[in-house]
Amino acid sequence: MDPIQLLIICAQAGMLVNLMLIAAAYMVLAERKVAAWIQGRVGPNRVGPWGLFQSFADVFKLYLKEDVVPAAADYKFHALAPIISIAVAITIYAVIPWSGPLVTIDGHSYGLAMAPQMNVAILIILAMTSVGVYGVALAGWSSNNKYSLMGGLRSAAQMISYELSMGLAVIGVVLISGSLNLVEIINSQIANGWNIMYQPVAFLIFFVTSLAETNRAPFDLPEAEPELVGGYHTEYTGMKFGLLYLAEYASMLAAGAIMATLFLGGWDMIPFVDEAALLGLAPDSIPMVVLGHITFVSKALLMVFVFIWIRWSLPRFRYDQLMNLGWKVLLPLALANIAVTGICLLLFG
Amino acid sequence: MEVQVILFAIFAVGAIGSAIVTVTRKNPVASAMALVGHFFMLSGLYLTLEAQFVAAVQVLVYAGAIMVLVVFVIMLLNLGTEQQLAERSSYLRGTLGTLFAALFVILLALAITSNPSGANQLSSKAVEIGTTESIGQSLFTQYLFPFEAVSLLLLAALIGAVILAKRHVQEGA
Amino acid sequence: MVTTYVPLMIMILIGVIFGVSNIVLAEILGPRRRNKAKLSTYESGMEPIKSARERFTVKFYLVAVMFILFDIEVIFMYPWAVQFKELGMYGFTAMILFMVLLFSGYLYVIKKGALRWD
Question: Looking at CA atoms only, how far is residue B136 from chain A in angstroms?
Answer without folding.
Answer: 11
